[in-house]
Amino acid sequence: MKTESDNRSLRIAFMASDVPEAQAAKAELEKRYGSVPFDEADIIVALGGDGLMLRAMHETVSSGKAVFGMKRGSTVGFLLNDYSPDNLLERLEQAEVTEIHPLNMVAEDVSGKEHEALAFNEVSLFRETHQAAKLKISIDGRVRMEELICDGLIIATPVGSTAYNLSAHGPILPINSPLLVMTPISPFRPRRWRGAILPKEAFIRIDVQEVRKRPVAAVADNREYRNVKWVEVTQDETVSVKLMFDPGRTLAERVIAEQFFF
């Protein structure tokens, strides 16, 4: 069967979340535009919500493949374009590209095992039990806070500043700003500490105090490691992912618009 992508050099692979709307959209788009295996594609078209987009970003990091997301079966979809089955090739050709770099998290658990993971949105630490977490915060080798008692702590990129960080009352960062944001979750002591804005070059270390009594989990986007003793976070400029957006709906514009949405 001849498809609308015949005689075009653009190679597209489609991926979709498990929701029926996304699966139906994937089937329709593959029929209309054709598709190639993931590893042969120039562009990945992701259909679903922000969770699927994060998965696509992790699977394409530093591969050179760009990701064009379309919202399907999602209530938020901050990282996605509006869905339409029409004129996809033209949209891809006209799309504006934003390149973003992830955080790199290294954590050691109580058994002495180290874990490493990338995070495009945020690295988060959470208390695992009824006991509040007790954390010591160091920046660039200098202790900045001897004791933070809280439910958790978020370290977010500009992209992630509009996600969980915003829900925790952290500030939104412009998408191209050379900054990171650190936001406490329900701080008990110091009660009025609202977090910090840090340069992207900052070397961040969080040491968990009373680790057996107050166990803490570390999460990089959707990868979780429990019972950690310490966590180190840096922004990794050696890897990146390319996101594609319709003209006038770039990620930078969305971040600005989010600050005026009530």
List keywords for this structure.
single chain; 262 residues; alpha+beta; Rossmann fold; Tumour Suppressor Smad4; 2 domains; 5 helices; 17 strands; disordered N terminus
The largest pleated sheet is described as:
6 strands, antiparallel
Encode the helix/strand succession as letters.
EHEHEHEEEEEEEHEEEEEEEH
Number of strands: 17
CATH superfamily of the largest domain: Probable inorganic polyphosphate/atp-NAD kinase, domain 2
Q: Termini separation (Å)?
A: 48 Å
Class by alpha and beta content: alpha+beta
How would you state the average pLDDT, rounded?
Answer: 92
CATH architecture of the largest domain: Sandwich
Question: What would CATH call the class of the largest domain?
Answer: Mainly Beta
Shape: elongated
Number of helices: 5
Which percent bin holds the helix content? Answer: 10-25%
The low-pLDDT segments are: 1-7
Strand content: 35-45%
- Report the radius of gyration as a whole number of Å: 20 Å
CATH third-tier fold name of the largest domain: Tumour Suppressor Smad4
| Sheet with most strands: strand arrangement | 6-5-16-13-8-9
Question: Which assembly state applies to the chains in this document?
Answer: single chain
Number of domains: 2
